Amino acid sequence: MPPDTARPVPFLRRSLAAGMSALALFCLTGAACTGQLGDETEPAEVDPLTGEPAVQDCSVTRTSPGVLRRLSRIEYQLTLQDLFQLDEPPVVDSIPEDTGQGGFRTIATLQNVSDQHLRAYLATAETLGQELMADEARRTSVLGCAPDADDCLERFVHRFGKLAYRRPLSAEEASDLVARASEVAQDRADAFRFVIEALLTSPSFLFRIEVGASGQETSPLTPLELASRLSFTLWGRSPSEDLLARAEAGELDSPEGLRAVAEEMVEDRRTELFFNAFFKQWLTFEQLRPPANPDPSWTPALLEDMIAESERVLGEHAFTPDTDFLDALTANHTYLTPELAKFYGLEASGDGMTRVEFPAGHHRANTGLLTHASLISAKNDGDLIAVRGQWIRAAFLCQKIYIPAGLLEQIEGELSGLSYVDVIKKRNTQEGCAGCHALIDPIGVGFAQYDKNGRYDGSIGIDEFGIAPRFEGAANESFDSLAALAAELRQSPDLAACVAEKLFIYTQGREPASEDRCAIDAAAEGFAQDGNRFRSFLTTIVQSPAFRLRRAPE
């Protein structure tokens, strides 16, 4: 019996149990901190003669090994929205949240499949099938034929199955599924529901399977595989019927054709929806926690307003034509509801979100994203100064600092009884601590006047912490305001490359390896040459020769 036509849950359970054993879970490991920053990319290959990192030859197309990718929760939702022609993505709260790493929930090696996943996938398919068959207008459109027509079930299996699997079903797969649906269904409508449940609980739907056009270790993608990768990269969902047809017609075969289609796609609203999730994961403001001891003016709606503020500013700079995306770091305006404006000590006229300009000398003037409460309040675990300083380096420069195993326990006794200010002073001078903290504390102290909730308190004196605000590696390392820090960060030569790296992780589902460096650097270069337009990042990513390749896992 062809695998994808067996009864959904038992087969899915057996197939995934076998398939998941091949997925290698990985974790980040880091060397002890010696005061040197490391980026998030795997180390480059080393020249055996000099011991120095080998220069990557970008004239040779390389790509790191791919991994079997399960649809992330957002990809699953958006794909179902298209398949069932829904106005909004369906609610999938019963499906477990994707495991995150570095803020991103798209890391393929962490996307396991549990019993809870299986039950939720089946329940979702059952619900969507029932709702479809009860909705006459949408049913006719999705089925593509009258359900009581003799050949409608078979036609639906081929048409819907191709959209679900991102490839045509074989004759054997289709005929077996039709036969089984006809055999077990209680009535005609139930036969369509059975098909929907079988297709949507199949590994061919739940996993993004890429085999390649040849049997070699590194192989070009087939046209339909390329269409699938393109659609998931730009829209976060399965390719449409139109995109599959264009791929079969050869429109994606040439770099020029792929570019033309990609440029059409990035102008579509679906790109904005998918990358709104990217912004939240990159800058880690997907979910905000209410304060432990809120003051009387606090309302739960403020959390939603904070997230909406950042979404609005990022979306404006990413998708407004001819707008420099990096200007989001130094913007002198934001969008506030009256309630959020009051939280900030400002005024906003009208209802809903309105644009607010900051007057000269205001603590938020020209600070862009850096003073958004959604971002500041999300970085409040533990030591605010260290956490926020490390976040700036990790989020915008792709630099991570690793704490040596056992170091905290080693120095815990030495710090016992010290005040917070004394702890900061000690860790910036003590051997074993100073190398790391000298890189993050002088940045984090610039945020010292913002409390855990992201509210400004001008009564706090930065000088009381014993370290001066400083951004090591910037052209002007010392800064006297967050506006100055934002300006230096905006001009950092590492910023564009870091954004390109974050986009790679989000869209490709893996941390980049040395083989991916050329593609990332090309994306950053194309971004800069096009005036830092966010859409140029996306089109350059898919134009990379490596985007067309699939390399087998080792």
From TrEMBL:
Keywords: Signal. Coiled coil: none annotated. Residues 69-133 form the DUF1587 domain. Residues 477-547 form the DUF1585 domain. The keyword Methyltransferase does not apply. InterPro entries: DUF1585, DUF1587, DUF1588, DUF1592, DUF1595. Residues 152-210 form the DUF1595 domain. Residues 367-456 form the DUF1588 domain. Residues 1-31 form the signal peptide. Pfam families: PSCyt3, PSD2, PSD3, PSD4, PSD5. Residues 221-346 form the DUF1592 domain. This is Secreted protein.
